[in-house]
């Protein structure tokens, strides 16, 4: 590391204080969000493979929607984090208004599609009729949560960029408790309530999302909240700010869509290899999310901290922060992957799935162990470092090359033309992060992300 990029002892202490204050709550949020999915997977796994597979594949619809929301907030956070460094609160409030309007519109589209075309959506992921029927039942109920999710997810994610992260942690924690209790009562039938199976999981998720919305509305009206929502910001947009929002958010939304659609195509490819492969993949993907909770928290903290110091015109600190976050992210994810490696036998043994599915799962968990380390490196670069400085376009091209032109293309050939086995296809589908590493490393060294993108706007 070059001497001028080293942090002083005081700067180093300040870095870790700020990083810990951001990463721990956001890692907990990620863990809680994964916990909601995990609760569904574990409890429906006790019901059987068909219910688990149906709910898992139906969940791909909200997965895509959430990725669009994440793209919107990531692009908006490029602006809000840097304006937070300038302490321009009024401009941040305007960005909130633009983001929430866009998200509510997207939520309406997804809700309408899930209600009108549930069979067509499920058929994109599997051709097994029992799985499709379970998925339709789940989708028609859980889609009522899409609008509450549109509002709460956008608002809570943007609050991160102004260093207000604890409210989201508490919101999602309460949601998790409600979801787990609701799952137990409604899936299996407790306290006189009839067992509802996959429909029970959907209702529990819906109730939890409604409670999230209630908590967020209460927080918005709390006098200690630094960011206010104004009706005029939902109906009249600053044209320069709207232009910046589109410029920086559009590539991120496209990036997240390409990545999300890629993950859904992966699920669809595996979905056509049988219910045993789908059930194993469902557990493997939740396991991947669990060991990435801190890595994803670090990438979000990277974007916030680097964006803030860039807004303060402290480019030397921004470069030093980037180096530290990259090493932290890879190191922590490696430790988590090693834990998964030693626990994979226990995880497979705890699931009520067929012996074939357990065999697939053991292998998939092994692949996930090394895949997560590469994913952590690339995510910290793309989501954290690059987006913090407005370099939002590179992620789109990286995912097009790594996923669509490589892993998905070759995975489809392996599955449908060469007729390789499930394990071989899974390895090919999870090879994209390896391909991305040379591209992200080259882009990082170009330092195109080290720039201030704020404007002087009339408030």
The succession of helices and strands, N to C, reads HHHHHHHHHHHHHHHHH
What's the main sheet like?
none
- Arithmetic mean of pLDDT: 85
Could you tell me the number of beta strands? 0
Indicate the radius of gyration in whole angstroms: 22 Å
Note the overall shape: globular
Give helix % range: over 70%
Summarize the structure.
By secondary structure, the protein is mainly alpha-helical. 82% of the residues lie in helices and 0% in strands.
Q: Helices, strands, pairings?
A:
Elements: H1 9-47, H2 49-85, H3 89-116, H4 118-123, H5 129-142, H6 146-160, H7 166-188, H8 198-220, H9 232-235, H10 239-271, H11 275-291, H12 293-311, H13 315-350, H14 355-388, H15 394-417, H16 422-429, H17 432-446
Describe this structure in words.
There is one protein chain. Helix content is 82%, strand content 0%. The chain has 459 residues and is mainly α. It has one domain (12-446). Helix 1 runs antiparallel to helix 12, helix 2 (49-85) packs parallel to helix 6 (146-160) and helix 14 (355-388) runs parallel beside helix 17 (432-446). The two termini are 42 Å apart.
Describe this protein with a few key phrases.
single chain, 459 residues, 17 helices
